[in-house]
Write a structure and sequence with these properties.
This is Importin subunit alpha-4. The protein is mainly alpha-helical. The protein has 29 helices and eight strands.
Length: 549
């Protein structure tokens, strides 16, 4: 700063300090306030260096000149709104007790300016917030929350209270919270959007303080109105409810009882990324409890899966947690079947192919594993459909590749189906074991040998399989119950619906030996895999499973 401007500032500060000439002092303080209100590099530090702070603080103490008090408070407010060092300088010169005292001023403009200054100081951090609270700021602030308070003033008061609630350590204290929450219940019904947004933020800060504070908010009766703001056009309502769903089961149920899920179709289709990401996060917390069916009943699954399939990385991750880690892993058979019917398999397999995040991969693998267990309890077309989908969309290849993954936890999950399956009392595997054997490459327990044939499956070209004599089912997705009888051929069941039964010399066509042929007789059966379609082929998904009759 050049010497001329500096000398002018020094002269201005001297005039502001001259209380013997009130008009000159008032004019000088007003000029200081205007300089500090400039949008372009206000000279905060030069004025501080010229000694303006104690002069402005002295101006706060007069009782006969309210306009001077207001101008001085305004100037100090702008300094306190600067850097941390500048805010600390205002506090260090003893301004805060004066601001608290001015909350009782008979002049509204003075009270309002004092509130604004305190808001800037409280917003600096928990230490200054604690200091201001210790001077008794909570009670006079709450006294301003009443219907007759002008809206501009009430906006500032609400903003300051939100700043008070933002600092969790320390908080305004249990007694202070007990006084604040009922006032927030009043403010949350206000028609002004600015007041609503700051009120919702205050409630969000309070509910982030743990289950006791969540319960205090619920007990205040504010929850129905807070839930009704979830899909408010201002977009802040979701912030207020997000922390409550991290509470106890009873607290989550209290939110659901207010029809919270009825707002989520709007939230999940919001044009702002941050809104629907937040909505997915909230749903992930809801489905973490025993409320999966409520999410299904609200008709949200299809939209969640759309985000899962077409969303950006972070959106897909949130959806994966909301759907996979909770519903696919912990859901019951009916819930898992519903997810399948909504088309969850393709995006799940796509996620395995495109993501490198180990945690997401583990969640997806756990989801697939549980899905197969759930639907595999009884033989059904659904088993064949799911197996086919996993195969077609690359899930099987990816799972096999994870058996060599660098992450030990992922390897364990990918290898889990290779453990020895248990057999039923009749020596036959149940459908779940068949599915896991077929799709995930489980170790097979050999039945009594009758005839062997080189199956030539991809990755195991030399493996032989045993087939059982009898009527041969040739299931496909279109004709799941079709059977054919071929003399004394062996009986084989392909869970993916791809059965090839041959007599005579026929190609086997494994990927590793595409030109290999085998001579079959009426005691052998061949399997033509991976894209070959002779007369009795169903859908050539590949994969082989069998059982002894």
């Amino acid at each position: 700063m050049n010497s001329l401007i500096l000398s002018n500032l020094q002269a201005l500060v001297q005039q502001a300090a001259d209380s013997t000439r009130p008009e000159i002092q008032h004019r000088a303080v007003t000029v200081v306030r205007k300089l500090l209100s400039s949008d372009r590099n206000p000279p905060i530090d030069p004025l501080i260096n010229c000694g303006i702070l104690p002069i402005l603080v002295n101006c706060l103490g007069g009782t006969n000149y309210s306009t001077l008090q207001c101008e001085a408070a305004w100037a100090l407010t702008n300094i306190a709104g600067g850097t941390s060092q500048q805010t600390q300088a205002v506090v260090g010169c003893g301004a805060v007790p004066h601001f608290v005292a001015l909350l009782a001023s008979p002049f509204q403009n003075v009270r309002e300016q004092a509130v604004w200054a305190l808001g800037n100081i409280i917003g600096e951090g928990p230490q200054l917030c604690d200091y201001v609270i210790s001077l008794g700021v909570v009670a006079p602030l709450l006294a301003f929350i009443k219907p007759e308070t002008p809206i501009t003033f009430l906006r500032n008061v609400t903003w300051v209270i939100a700043n008070l609630c933002r600092n969790k350590d320390p908080t305004p204290g249990w007694q202070g919270l007990a006084e604040i929450v009922p006032k927030l219940n009043f403010l949350v019904h206000h028609a002004d959007t600015n007041i609503l947004v700051d009120t919702v933020w205050a409630l969000s800060y309070l509910t982030a303080g743990g289950n006791d504070q969540i319960q205090m908010v619920i007990d205040s009766g504010v929850l129905p109105k807070l839930v009704s703001l979830l899909s408010h056009r201002a977009g802040g309502g979701l912030t207020g409810g997000r922390n409550i769903v991290t509470g106890t089961g009873e607290q989550i149920q209290a939110v659901l009882n207010c029809d919270a899920l009825g707002h989520f179709d709007t939230l999940l289709n919001h044009h702002e990324d941050k809104i629907y990401k937040e909505a997915l996060w909230v749903l992930s917390k809801v489905t973490a409890g025993n409320y999966m069916q409520a999410v299904i009943d609200a008709g949200l699954i299809t939209t969640i899966i759309e985000h899962f399939e077409f969303g950006a990385y972070q959106t897909q991750t949130e959806a994966a947690w909301a759907v996979l880690s909770k519903m696919m892993i912990s859901g019951n058979k009916e819930q898992v079947s519903y997810l399948i019917s909504c088309g969850v398999i393709q995006p799940v397999c796509n996620l395995l192919s495109s993501y490198k995040d180990s945690q997401v991969i583990q969640v997806v693998l756990e989801g697939i594993h549980n899905m197969l267990k759930m639907i595999g309890d009884d033989p059904s077309e659904e088993v064949e459909y799911v197996c086919g989908e996993i195969k077609v969309f690359g899930g099987l290849d990816k799972i096999e590749s994870f058996q060599n993954h660098e992450n030990l936890d992922i390897r364990k999950i990918a290898d889990r189906p290779r453990s020895q399956p248990r057999s039923g009392s009749d020596g036959r595997r149940n459908a779940s074991q068949l599915v896991i054997s077929t799709v995930l490459g489980s170790h097979r327990t050999e039945p009594e040998p009758m005839a062997r044939f080189g199956s030539g499956l991809y990755g195991e070209p030399n493996r032989t399989e045993t087939f059982i004599t009898g009527s041969v089912p040739v299931p496909s997705l279109r004709e799941p119950n079709r059977t054919g009888r071929f003399g004394s051929l062996k009986k084989v069941r392909f869970c993916f619906g791809s059965s090839i039964l041959v007599l005579g010399s026929k190609p086997v066509l494994p990927r590793t030996e595409p030109n290999r042929t085998v001579e079959t007789t009426n005691s052998n059966v061949g399997y033509l895999g991976y894209g070959a379609y002779p007369a009795y082929a169903g859908y050539g998904y590949g994969g082989l499973a069998y059982y002894k009759k």
